[in-house]
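Researcher: Predict the fold of Type II toxin-antitoxin system VapB family antitoxin.
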Amino acid sequence: MATARVFKSGNSQAVRIPREFMLDVNEVEIFRRGDELVLRQPRRTLQAAFDLLASMPVDFMQDGRNDSVPQEREAWI
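Model: Structure tokens for Type II toxin-antitoxin system VapB family antitoxin follow.
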């Protein structure tokens, strides 16, 4: 089993991760699972999109898009 060095970095605690566990991301999720401390890549979900939609005002686009009429074009098949 590999080990890692724990040290103080400013007001935080840091862990030097061995090369064999090198991550290719700038940010990780961290949580406890029993007596384990787990680091993992953030999961890609649509939660941020749903939160953004939920924050839209109730009257957003209440009057529609107000688009112009579509152009007449010749078919080119």
